[in-house]
Design a protein that fits this description.
By secondary structure, the protein is mainly α. The chain is 84% helix and 1% strand.
Length: 316
């Protein structure tokens, strides 16, 4: 009887896993199609790839698309218990963590760009030129690579050389052997969280002062910029909570396996997929110029896009 109950529980768990993996594939496919459409729209006009805020928007789209593809591939490989060489897993981990940090750091840069545009309009053309955008992208990727370097340095210092040729299921938790390594990793993540949060709060408060002093059309434009910063802040919060998810999941795993699976699925949907769908809403639908270009690139999907835009406007 006990064996039958155990078998029933195992089959039930496997059924839920099948169902959840299918749902994730459907969501990832939708988000990737939207992102690729927006990337194509970005390259459709010279104005977009010579304007800083659209360039940074494209960086987030590319980063989000890379995260979706790599994390979803790891999900499928893990589901089918596919093993790979540890050395290959190190390369995947390096790219995944880099992209994971590129998105929130870019969102912070986009918030600063809105701060300069609203609070320092006379210097906006100088500080946010195309050349400055390229330098900004280099700085973003340099800052985003620091956590990768820290974690991998600790891994290389403690892992035996024979480990790199061994085969295992690629998991992000395998790069932390000792408790102190986990503490250092958490400290780095919290440092990034603090700096980016303070930047958002600073920009929001400065723009709020300008909103109170503005009148007429300037006030309307400034309010729109303030809402954009607020949306960036919410998106950034979800991205930063994602950095804490591995630590939460590790603690839950010590309690119950089924609870761990449920928490991990919720975290993936809420803090991995959800932030990736906010970028299209913030710039793809709320921005009038980008929306007009999007209509030309998606003539058959225009009724749906128009409906989404109306919903977005009514919410905001």
């Amino acid at each position: 009887m006990a064996d039958n109950n155990s078998m029933g529980g195992s089959e039930s768990l496997e059924f839920h896993l099948n169902d959840r993996v299918t749902i994730v594939q459907f969501l990832v496919l939708i988000f990737l199609c939207i992102n690729f459409l927006l990337i194509a729209t970005f390259f459709s006009k010279v104005y977009f790839y010579t304007t800083m805020r659209y360039i940074l928007f494209a960086v987030t789209l590319l980063s989000d698309s890379s995260i979706l593809i790599m994390s979803n591939n790891l999900l499928i490989l893990s589901y089918f218990r596919f093993t790979m060489q540890i050395g290959l897993c190190v390369i995947i981990y390096l790219n995944l963590v880099l992209c994971t940090f590129v998105t929130p750091v870019t969102l912070t840069a986009m918030t600063l760009e809105r701060y300069v545009a609203i609070c320092m309009p006379l210097r906006h053309g100088e500080l946010c030129s195309t050349r400055s955008s390229i330098n900004c992208i280099l700085i973003i990727h340099s800052l985003s690579s620091v956590p990768c370097i820290v974690v991998l340095s600790m891994f290389f210092a403690s892992a035996p050389h024979s480990l790199y040729t061994q085969y295992s299921i690629c998991s992000m938790g395998m790069f932390v052997f000792l408790r102190w390594q986990n503490n250092v990793k958490l400290a780095v993540y919290q440092c990034y969280f603090l700096i980016m949060t303070l930047t958002i709060i600073f920009s929001y408060s400065k723009i709020m002062k300008v909103v109170k002093a503005a009148t007429g059309e300037d006030k309307k434009s400034t309010w729109k910029g303030l809402r954009t910063v607020a949306l960036h802040g919410f998106q950034l919060l979800l991205c930063l909570i994602q950095l804490w998810c591995p630590f939460i999941e590790t603690a839950v795993l010590q309690i119950n396996l089924k609870l761990f699976i449920d928490v991990r699925y919720f975290n993936y949907i809420m803090f991995n997929l959800t932030p990736r769908c906010l970028s299209p809403l913030i710039y793809g639908l709320r921005d009038d110029q980008f929306f007009l270009a999007l209509k030309r690139n998606a003539p058959f999907g225009f009724p749906c896009v128009k409906c989404m835009k109306n919903v977005q406007i009514s919410v905001l």
